[in-house]
Structures are given as structure tokens and as C-alpha cells.
């Protein structure tokens, strides 16, 4: 055939070996990826299920970043936000229904990142809040 060139035998064998190695690597990575992803999900669930803990005179809990902190009273308004994902709280109190979660009437007393004091909805706290003390609470 005019104009057709074939690779020398050595180059052809090298190209086949490289292709076979690449296929093996892809297959190995594909098999590992779902297991690694499952491990990440398990770790996230473990963190989400932890309890609040006491340290430095406060109760510390994992919470949703950007969660609003509400004023006291019959017509609460947002007084600040909790931009951190680990925050401290002083106590918990059952009050007006604020969510459909495991503690639908629970609120936690804290200081927002702007220095204003108020209540955070329990649904914005990822940790289990049962360990927090109840009354007296503001």
C-alpha cells in the first residue's frame, strides 16, 4: 500500500503495554472510588451524631454555618448569625415549635458572632443537645 507506514515491532509492543497498563489503572481506581466515597459518608454521619460537650465553662456543639440567632419574646427577630460551625451554648429550653426534627420545640441560648445574645433553633444544631443543661435559662 502506498503511503502506509507501520510501526516497528518494538514500538508496537510498547504501545500495547502502555495501553494495557492504563486500562488496569482505570479499573483499579474505579473499584476503589465507591469504597472511598462510602467511608466519607460514614465519617460525616459520625460527626453529625455526636453529643455537645462541656469545656471552658460552656457547652460546645456543631452547628450549621450561617444559622440565625433570634431575640427573646413573643415576636422574635434575628439579632445575629453564627458563622462558625462549632459554637458554644449556655443552656436549652423548650418553647415555641420551630422545626419538625427530634426536638421540635427546643431552643439553645448563645451569643451570636456579632456579640448579640439570643436563641438558636435546635434544628440548626447538628450535635445532640440533650447533654445541655435545662433551666435556669434566660
How is this structure best described in words?
- This protein has 138 residues and is of the alpha+beta class.
- The chain folds into two domains: 8-49; 53-124.
- The chain is built from one helix and eight strands.
- The chain has one helix at 9-48; strands at residues 53-55, 58-62, 67-70, 78-82, 86-89, 91-94, 106-111, 117-121.
- Strands 1-2-5 form a three-stranded antiparallel sheet, with no helix packed on it. A three-stranded antiparallel sheet has the order 6-7-8, with no helix packed on it.
What distinguishing features does this structure have?
alpha+beta, 138 residues, 3-stranded antiparallel β-sheet, 2 domains, 8 strands, 29% helix, single chain
Unreliable stretches, pLDDT < 50, 5 or more residues? 4-8, 11-19, 22-48
Structural class: alpha+beta
Order of helices and strands: HEEEEEEEE
Termini, distance in Å?
Answer: 93 Å
- Round the Cα radius of gyration to an integer and report it: 28 Å
Total number of domains: 2
Strand proportion, as a percent range, falls in 25-35%
Q: Give the proportion of residues in helices.
A: 25-40%
Number of distinct helices: 1
Cross-sheet strand order for the largest sheet: 1-2-5
Report the biggest beta sheet as strand number plus sense, adding barrel if it closes. Answer: 3 strands, antiparallel
Counting DSSP E segments of at least 2 residues, the number of strands comes to 8
Amino acid at each position: 500500500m502506498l503511503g502506509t507506514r507501520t510501526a516497528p515491532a518494538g514500538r508496537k509492543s510498547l504501545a500495547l503495554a502502555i495501553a494495557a497498563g492504563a486500562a488496569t489503572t482505570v479499573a483499579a481506581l474505579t473499584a476503589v472510588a465507591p469504597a472511598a466515597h462510602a467511608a466519607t459518608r460514614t465519617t460525616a454521619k459520625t460527626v453529625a451524631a455526636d453529643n455537645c460537650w462541656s469545656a471552658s465553662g460552656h457547652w460546645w456543639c456543631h452547628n450549621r454555618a450561617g444559622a440565625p440567632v433570634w431575640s427573646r419574646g413573643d415576636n422574635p427577630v434575628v439579632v445575629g448569625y453564627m458563622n462558625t460551625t462549632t459554637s458554644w451554648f449556655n443552656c436549652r429550653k423548650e418553647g415555641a415549635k420551630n422545626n419538625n426534627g427530634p426536638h421540635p420545640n427546643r431552643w439553645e441560648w448563645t451569643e451570636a458572632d456579632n456579640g448579640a445574645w439570643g436563641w438558636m433553633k435546635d434544628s440548626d444544631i447538628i450535635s445532640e443537645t440533650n447533654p445541655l443543661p435545662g433551666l435556669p435559662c434566660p
